[in-house]
# Entry
Amino acid sequence: MDVVTGKWKSLILWELDHNGTRRFGELRKGLPGVSEKMLIQHLREMEDDGLLHREVYREVPPKVEYSLTPDGVSLNNALAPLGAWGTQRAKRLATDTQP
# Structure
């Protein structure tokens, strides 16, 4: 569970799985509300855990791209049923609160 601890890690996995390789700015736009500091921290942790690949291109301005490793893809697949459960629960709660 240490690998997915943090509010943004599962969302980063989802973003990269559904949109493919992304640059930092693209990830930040795809995750409204995440601070730059938190995104950098989570990306570093996920890279250290072997979930992300970080490709640095030697050009000006510097270009860095993030993509999922096979472990990242398999973790995202393992989390899919939890996401489906959350979606169903949110729908149920929305209908329960309507008059």
